[in-house]
Amino acid sequence: MRSFLFSLSVGGAFLAIYYVFQIISEFYQTVDYTPDVMNSYKEVEQLKNHADFAVVQGFPIIEIMLLVLGIATYYIVRAIRARKPIV
Q1: Are the C-beta atoms of residues 16 and 70 closer than 8 Å to each other?
Q2: Where are the beta strands (DSSP E) in 1-87?
Q3: Quick one: pLDDT at residue 29?
Q4: Taking Cα atoms as reference points, which of 10, 2, 5 lies closest to residue 77?
Q5: Which residues of the chain are modeled with pLDDT < 70?
Q6: Which of the four, 14, 16, 20, 82, has the lowest number of CB atoms within 10 Å?
Q7: Among candidates 10, 2, 3, 1, which has minimal Cα distance to 71?
């Protein structure tokens, strides 16, 4: 049970690194963004006439994959370290 909880924490660390990377990359994209006001409204058809409420997010497949990757990484490293070296 203890090793499973530790493997979950490794998976959580993978998720934390992913979210920190997302935050930093979005921050730099926001800083570098310069709007083009003159050409933004050339085509008015793309503008919406109504607001969308209660938009449902998709299935968090990336987060689940990172969590599973972290758990698998922990168990693989643990199995490699448990093997005795061939001399």
Answers
A1: no
A2: none
A3: 87
A4: 10
A5: 42-52, 54-59, 84-87
A6: 82
A7: 10
